[in-house]
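chain below, 278 aa
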Amino acid sequence: MSKFEEYVLVVGGFQGSVLWLLLSFDARLNTASRILGAICLLMASAFLMPFLELVQSGPLQWLLGWIFYLPAAGGALAYLYCRSALLGRPLARPDVLFFLPLLLCYLLAADLLVGDPAALNAWIRGGPAPDWRLPASEYLLFAQAFGYAAATVAMIGRYRRAARTTLADFNPAIFRWMLVLQVLTLAIWSLNALPALTSASVVFTQIANLLMVFMVYLIAITQWRLPELFRIPELAAEQAADAAGPGDAPQAADGELDPDLRARLHASIVTEMEQRQL
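prediction:
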């Protein structure tokens, strides 16, 4: 590992960890920001991997396998982030099912993770696999990334069309921001897949690491300078209204909207007037 690679990994890991702390423990931020913080922590752990691969003995060798499979949660986190950012929807218990690929990866290598990690660590460093389960877990690692990316892009497109149809005024930059994140994520996974699944040069992994550092800084700058890119409350209200149905919204006897809906609309208008100075 060259000095430049070490510098990139250290800087990326440090910045990802700091951004995770800032996004996770600030009471003013919402669920979407905290999920974004978890994505930053995931990238920080990826920067730690090359250093763990150099460890041949000691307690740290047990961490290598566990951290190696953590990216299997990346696709689910990206999907849940976009959903929460668009709709303001909090996480619920059924959302645990999104992390089944991570659980399956751990189950496939369970005996090696909790037993002697030597065979698993040797395979991660480029050695032969002891049986079919480890290659299968690696294919699952990349399959979940591309599968969730496709689902996330489809969701962004669906809500973008809904916003254009049902909202008189919305910020299209929100959707561009999420698509940029997905493009960067797909590029990083594709670059990592080339040397992992083929005989391509490891230079692709080094480029992927540079892209991850860029992505961490991009998230930091965007989150703090353009906070309006992280939620569309009107779209959330529209989705809730669609789910309730036309007959479920109570109205006053004289045909006026019910007080709760009037209060939400008033708060939304005041917010727009104060923040965007319409």
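The radius of gyration is 22 Å. The chain has a mean pLDDT of 81.
thats it, cya
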